Amino acid sequence: MARLGVVDEKQVGTGNCYSIPSFTMSHTTEATRARPRSQESSGWFTIPAPLAQLFKKFPLLTYPPNELPCRSPGLRDTPTLYVFISDEDALKDLPSFNPSCLKWQTFLKLAGVDFRVRPSNNHASPTGALPFLLPPYTPSDSKSQRPVPSNKLEQYALNNGKAELPKSLGTKLDAYESLLDHGIRNAWLYTLYLSPANLGLLTQLYIAPTTSSPPVRATILYQLRHAAESEILKSTSRDAIIPTYLYHEAREAFRALNTVLADEEWFFGSRTPGLFDATVFSYTHLILHDELPWGNRRMNDILSEFPRLVNHRNRIFQRCWLAST
To answer: Over the stretch 180-214, which tens digit does the pLDDT of each residue have?
Structure first.
């Protein structure tokens, strides 16, 4: 009596090739063995001989693997700070165009940390925001592969810098930092993100490098402006944004900083510039930066009323970017 051949269940899903189940007769075993080998290999899945010979000639040529882009992380012997910056400016080690990134880029330079900058965006950051730093790679130290977020960069600079830094002033700085976080930052956000005259600059810095698609650009523009508007309204506790009020607050903040700096080289009479100097510079440099095509120059005009702050910006730039050239 004929019986149905059964496929071994261990073969299922393993990737092994097996033929379609067939009917077999026990008394035909010897006859089956006696069949020519060519008949066993014949079937639906057999490749015709001419095609088989043709396939044996492929691949005709195998190209070597492509090299990784320059910005890709590899074996690192130098710390890498990821910031908002163009590819060209990163190669020249120029300042970032983002105040939060420029603050830490400047402070690491003031601290004497040897590092390089690379372009990035918030989506690539482990914390969802730039900047972050990748320390040098050490095969024997697994911690060397952990990124350093911005809230730990001050301690990283203190541990790895070669330059003398002023002692931390602790809570004494809170009142002065609020001048930057509110009075100056709110006016900065309005000027760059919401002022119609600076749409071209905003597009150049944050939108054009991301995509060339008009619908996507429109979406990004809406998201950037909505985020800036929400932050300003939350900071000012007002129902509407009033530009004249924002610029008034920025002028008063610059006036207070100008008074604190007085005739000293660095803030609070320190012998060397520190984190607060870097924070102030992150705004004053970008506001006065000649190569940024500001359409609305109101912030530039206000800052120019305080020569001490302008000179302070020039000293920081000279120390961090021109001293070695």
So the answer is: 999 999 999 999 999 999 999 999 999 999 999 99
Q: Name beta bridge partners: 3.
A: 24
In angstroms, rounded to a whole number, what is the distance separating the alpha carbons of residues 144 and 139? Answer: 8
Please give the Cα distance from 195 to 53 (Å, whole number): 69
User: Do residues 302 and 250 lie in contact, with contact meaning Cβ atoms separated by under 8 Å?
Assistant: yes
Are 283 and 251 contacting, i.e. CB atoms less than 8 angstroms apart? no
Same domain, 134 and 189: no
**d(Cα 25, Cα 35) in Å, to the nearest integer?**
15
Q: Among 123, 138, 153, where does a domain finish?
A: 138
Q: Are residues 275 and 217 in the same domain?
A: yes
Domain limits for position 210: 172-322
Residue 20, pLDDT score: 35
Q: What is the DSSP annotation of 288-319?
A: H-TTS--S--HHHHHHTT-HHHHHHHHHHHII
What lies within 8 Å, CB to CB, of 240 at 6+ separation is: 233
What stretches in the chain show pLDDT beneath 70?
1-45, 59-76, 138-144, 324-325
Omega of the bond prior to 196 within 30 degrees of 0, cis?
no
Q: Residue 174: its pLDDT value, please? A: 82
Please write the tens of the pLDDT for every residue from 205-230: 999 999 999 999 999 999 999 999 99
- Please tell me whether residues 212 and 276 are part of one structural domain: yes
The answer to the question of residue 165 being in a domain is no
Instruction: Tell me which of 92, 116, 138 is where a domain ends.
Output: 138
Same domain, 128 and 215: no
Are 288 and 300 a contacting pair, CB within 8 Å?
yes
Residue 172, token pair as written in the block: 């004494």
What does the block give as tokens for 203? 């597009």
- Number of domains forming the structure of the chain: 2
